[in-house]
């Protein structure tokens, strides 16, 4: 597991982080810290949130799309 996966599990279990978007933007600023804006970590991190929070597959897909929508919005200036 990556350090980010461990951080995600810790954030969910210990800091009431219930949002993948919150984790990406505030708890572990992957959008700013990673060259690919954390895209390569999206699926494994979403899976951790799904397992820990009991999300359905549809909810997991929706949460991933929220990240992608945010990324598209933030990078639309290009």
Q: Please, could you describe this protein's structure?
A:
There is one protein chain. The protein is mostly helical. The protein has five helices and no strands. The protein has helices spanning about 5-15, 20-25, 30-35, 40-55, 55-75. It is globular and about 35 Å long. It starts with a helix and ends with a helix. The relative contact order is 0.17. The model has no long low-confidence stretch (mean pLDDT about 95).
What is the fold's blueprint, element by element?
Blueprint: H1 3-14, H2 20-27, H3 30-33, H4 42-53, H5 57-74
Helix pairs in contact: 1-4, 4-5
Short description:
This protein is an all-alpha fold and 78 residues long.
Helix proportion of residues, in percent? 55-70%
Q: Compute the number of strand runs.
A: 0
Structural class: mainly alpha
Number of helices: 5
Q: For the terminal residues, how far apart are their CA atoms? A: 33 Å
Give the key terms.
78 residues, mainly alpha, 5 helices, globular
């Amino acid at each position: 597991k990556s350090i980010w996966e461990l951080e995600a599990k810790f954030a969910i279990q210990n800091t009431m982080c219930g949002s993948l978007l919150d984790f990406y933007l505030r708890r572990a600023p992957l959008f700013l810290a990673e060259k690919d804006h954390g895209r390569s970590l999206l699926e494994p991190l979403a899976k951790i949130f799904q397992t820990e929070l009991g999300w359905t597959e549809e909810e997991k897909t929706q949460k991933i799309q929220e990240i992608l929508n945010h990324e598209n919005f933030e990078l639309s200036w290009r």
